[in-house]
UniProtKB/TrEMBL annotation:
Keyword Transmembrane helix part of the UniProt annotation: no
Name by which UniProt lists this protein: Deoxyribodipyrimidine photolyase
Family membership: Belongs to the DNA photolyase family.
Pfam family, any one: FAD_binding_7
Keywords: Chromophore, FAD, Flavoprotein
InterPro entries for the chain: Crypto/Photolyase_FAD-like_sf, Crypto/Photolyase_N_sf, Cryptochr/Photolyase_FAD-bd, Cryptochrome/DNA_photolyase_1, DNA_photolyase_1_CS_C, DNA_photolyase_N, Rossmann-like_a/b/a_fold
Species this chain originates from: Rhizobium nepotum 39/7
Cofactor(s), by name: (6R)-5,10-methylene-5,6,7,8-tetrahydrofolate; FAD
Record SUPFAM superfamilies: Cryptochrome/photolyase FAD-binding domain, Cryptochrome/photolyase, N-terminal domain
Matching Gene3D superfamilies: 1.25.40.80, DNA Cyclobutane Dipyrimidine Photolyase, subunit A, domain 3, HUPs
Residues annotated as domain Photolyase/cryptochrome alpha/beta: 6-132
PANTHER family attached to this UniProt entry: CRYPTOCHROME, CRYPTOCHROME CIRCADIAN CLOCK 5 ISOFORM X1
Keyword Cytoplasm belongs to the record: no
Amino acid sequence: MPIKSSPVIVWFRKDLRLSDNLALLAAVEHGGPVIPLYIREKASGPLGGAQQWWLHHSLVSLIAALEKTGSRLVLASGDAEKTLRHLISETGADAVFWNRRYEPAGMATDKVLKQKLRDDGLTVRSFSGHLLHEPSRVQTKSGGPYRVYTPFWRALEGGEEPHAPADAPKSLKAPPTWPKSEKFDDWNLLPGKPDWARDFSDIWTPGETGAREKLADFVDGALGGYEEDRDFPAKDATSLLAPHLALGEISPAAVWHATKGLSRHIASNDISRFRKELVWREFCYHLLFHFPELDEKNWNDDFDAFGWRDDEKSFDAWTRGMTGYPIVDAGMRQLWQHGTMHNRVRMIVASFLIKHLLIDWRKGEKWFRDTLVDADPASNAANWQWVAGSGADASPFFRIFNPILQGEKFDAYGDYVRRFVPELEKLDRKFIHKPFEAPEEVLRKAGIELGETYPRPIVDHAKARERALAAYAAVKNHT
Ligand SMILES: Cc1cc2nc3c(=O)[nH]c(=O)nc-3n(C[C@H](O)[C@H](O)[C@H](O)COP(=O)(O)OP(=O)(O)OC[C@H]3O[C@@H](n4cnc5c(N)ncnc54)[C@H](O)[C@@H]3O)c2cc1C
C-alpha cells in the first residue's frame, strides 16, 4: 500500500475521547498525518451553561491527551462547512472523518456536508460510537421503529453484542506544520461572577480519565446492589456516568463491556438492571431519531390541547427549590449545586412542575437543558415526555406523584433533604417531608419559621391533584 501523505481531519464532536474512537482509529489507518479538530458550532445550538462548564474541562483533558500522542487539537468557531473548507485548503487534507451524532440539527448538517465534500473529491467517512447500535438498524419485525421500551430491550438483549471497545492510539502522526487555531482561553466557557459552578468539582472530574475512573469505581462498588439501591437518592448507588456519556468521554460500548464476566461477584439482576438503564438511553435516541421534534412536540398529540398555565412566580419558585415541598426543593438545589439530580428525584420534580403546577413540560425540559451537566437531547426530551404522559410508552398522566409520600418512601430518614435543604436539618424525621404539618413547638425547636426560613407549600397537594385530573379530563373529552 502506498504511504499516504495528505492529512486526514478528525472532527471531534460528542466523542471527546481517544479510546474506542473509531473515527480516530480509521484516521490512523488512513496513513497520513492526523489533524484533530473541534468546532464550536452555532447551528447545532449552544450547550447549556452547566454543560459548557463540563465542555471546558473535557476539552482541557482532550488537549492534554492529544499532546501525549504528539498531536494537538485545532479549535475553531462558527459554521462547520466554512471551517472545514478553510482547514482543507490550508492543510491539503484529502479526508474528513467523524463519529455520528443524532440530534436533528447535527444530523442535517452532517448529511449535507458529507455529500458536498464527497462531490469535491474528498473521502468522508462517519462511524458509530455514541450509541450501542445504529438506530436505523434496530427495527421491529414489521420493519418500523420501536415505540415501546420492553420489546426494544428484548431485541437488544438478545441481539448482536455491541462492538468490543478499541484501545486508544499510542501516537498520532502530526502534519508538517500545524494549521491556525483559536486560543482555548478566549472561548470563556466557564461562568463568570457569580461562579454558580464552584461546587461542581466536588463530585465531577470531566474528561476521559475521569470517566474511566467513575466506571471502575462503580463496577467495583455500587454495581453490586444497584437494583435495590438505585432509587434512593441519599445513597451513592448509581454510576454518575451520564455526563461522561453525554459528551462521549466514554463509549456506551465500553460501559456495556465493563459489566461482562462479573457474574461470579455481582448478582445478575444488578448487572441486567444497569444494562436496562443504558438501554433506556438508547431507546431515547431511537425515539429522537424517528421523531426529531421530540423536544418540541407532544409525541401523543392529544396533549396539544392541554390547558397549561402561565405562572412565572411558581416556575421561579420551582427553579430555586423554594416550593415548600422538601423533596422537590432538595432536588432542584442539588441541580444548582452539582449540575445533576438523582433519577428518582428528577421524576418527582418533573411531575410536580407538570401536574401540581400545570406548567408545560417544555419549560422544564429547557431548564434542565441549561442546568444539567448531563443534558442530553434524547434522554432529556424523552424523559420529560414520559413524565408528562405525552411520550412514547409514557407513564399515564393520571399517575400523580405525591411529593410527601415519595419523600417518605425513598428518603425515609430525610438524609437527602437535609443534605440539600440545610434549613430543615434539625427537623424531626416525622415531619421532614411535610414541615407544614409540624406543630409550632417542633418547628421552633428545629429553628424553622415557615414562610420566613423555609417556604410554605406554593400549592396544596390535594387541590393541585384535583386540578390536574380535571385538566387531563378536559383533554380526554376533547379528543
Ligand atoms: C425529567 C428527566 C430528565 C432527564 N434528563 C436527562 C438528561 O438530560 N440526560 C441524561 O443522561 N439523562 C436524563 N435523565 C435520565 C436519568 O435521570 C439520568 O440518566 C440518570 O439520573 C443519570 O445518573 P447516572 O449516570 O448515575 O445513572 P445510572 O443509574 O448509573 O444509569 C446508567 C446510565 O444509563 C442511562 N440512563 C439511566 N436512566 C435513564 C433514563 N431514565 N433515561 C435515559 N437514560 C438513562 C444514563 O446514560 C446513565 O448514565 C432524565 C430523567 C428525567 C426523569
